Amino acid sequence: MPLPFLLGALGAKIILTTAVAAGAVGVAKGVKGVMDSNEADGIMEKAERIIKRSQKDIEEQKEETAFALKKLGENKKYNFIRYIKPR
Fold this sequence. Notes:
87 residues; rod-shaped
């Protein structure tokens, strides 16, 4: 009769080993998931910094362009009044 007990113990050991292995795989996947999430967060923060800097650069260019267009208009007006209108 010891054979059924041995087979039962062996089966229980196999099930336990499988459960431990599955748990270890789950933990490893969880750790990898956390690492991937942290990496994604870092990439997102870098992208946000790039976007913020780009928006600042665009705003500066808009201001410089507006100033240059204003000066161009003033120069055109001056030249029109001084050289073209008197004729």
